[in-house]
Design brief:
Elements lengths: L1 E2 L5 E2 L1 H11 L9 H7 L4 H10 L2 H25 L4 E3 L1 E2 L2 E2 L10 E3 L1 H17 L20 E3 H6 L13 E3 L3 H4 L4 H4 L2
Helix pairs in contact: 1-2, 2-3
Amino acid sequence: MTRMAGKKNLDDRQIRFLVNYLDPKSKTYSDAKNSALAVGFTKKYADNITALMPDWLGEAIGRRKRLLVKAEKNLEQVLDLDIYQDAIGPFGPIINKKTKKPYKVLSSKVLISRGNASEFIAKTVGKEHYSEKGNGGNQTNIIVVLPESLARKRGINSDTESSSGGSTPLPSIENRKTGREDDISR
């Protein structure tokens, strides 16, 4: 007997059932009947295991749901992170002398985190509508286009005409390195 998934002592079959049922790499993942049959439970018990919901199974599923809720909250927080951060120089924030506010720059780390979270969600939650098309390498292309009104509001000017008719590409990191005020201000 082993302690797992809460207060109950589990026997070997129960542990193997939980591994088969809850492990995404298992052939019987999320299939209670076949997980139960694979570890030696009777067909009658396997047919009714989720309807019977023994304490040991309820506790294991409850823990899994709590962990899933926490993971979903974390993903939402990552997706809600502000992509702009204060521009920091060697002595602290770089302040705009006119507005007395710090300049804002895109945070590549936040963009990468948001992109990774978005890709994970698209692959798992929206897998029916998501298509993964590789570019032959191990690289992800991210194109960010702002509506013209939002670009003006953020003080971002485009040197070239936009091909999307009414949208302005967000300045690249290379453009912002020029030090032009309109490239780094929010």
